[in-house]
Amino acid sequence: MQTPCIFYIELELEVDHARWMQYEQVDPLAAFVMADGRFVMKLREFMTTKLESVDHSASAYEAIEKMVDRRIRSLLVRFPGSEREYGVMTARDVVFKVLAKGIDPKAVKASDVASRPLFCVNKDAELGEVARLMEEANVGRVFVCDGEKLAGVISLIDLMAAKLIERARGNELS
Fold first, then answer.
1. DSSP summary character for residue 140
2. What sign for the dihedral angle of Cα 12, 154, 43, 40?
3. HSE (CB half, 13 Å, CA atoms) of 144?
4. N or C: which end of the chain has fewer CB within 10 A?
5. pLDDT of residue 162
6. Residue 127, pLDDT score
7. What span, in angstroms and rounded, lies between the C-alpha atoms of 69 and 73?
8. What pairing do the DSSP bridges indicate for beta strands 86-90 and 149-155?
């Protein structure tokens, strides 16, 4: 009988402003499906599904507070209109478009800092396809859509984590 391969992932949790490390056992085969005789990692296994947002009329300062408080690198900026009317405001946008130029973050709106349109892929896209899109568009995150609805975001760090797991399995990104 073959011994199953077990991975442990490290999760950083914040509870009442105290940081805790937790290790969770994961089944590495859950991230793979058979396709054309090879294992393919699925996007949904690595994307972040909890998306934080601010209204387009919020100040850049309010957005910065939210990003720092939640220790995240980007926020969706909600614009009026349909459910898919979003932009993204990243830490890079804040530093380059506001702070480096000496602009008061309270005097500029999130909508003025946000990048539009979002780069999106279907929830069934393969990780290699996402990596190629990121390279071509020179972006650090791609949003994942399920039909007309945003389902999550996958970032550069998510792709690197997927690569590590894939290497451990002996496969390469497609």
1. S
2. negative
3. 24
4. N
5. 86
6. 86
7. 11
8. unpaired
| Amino acid at site 37 | G
Task: Supply the CATH classification number for the domain 42-169.
Answer: 3.10.580.10
Instruction: Identify the H or E element spanning 146.
Output: strand 141-146
Please determine, for residue 72, whether its predicted confidence score (pLDDT) is greater than 50.
yes
Neighbours of 121 (CB within 10 A): 18
SS (H, E, C) 65-127: HHHHHHCCCEEEEECCCCCCCEEEEEHHHHHHHHHCCCCCHHHCEHHHHCECCCCEEECCCEH
Q: For residue range 96-153, what is the model confidence (pLDDT) as tens digits?
A: 999 999 999 999 999 999 998 889 999 888 888 899 999 999 999 999 998 888 999 9
Q: Residue 73 corresponds to which amino acid?
A: R
DSSP string over 16-47: TTEEEEEEEEE-GGGGEEEETTEEEEBGGGTS
Domains of the chain, by residue range, sit at 42-169
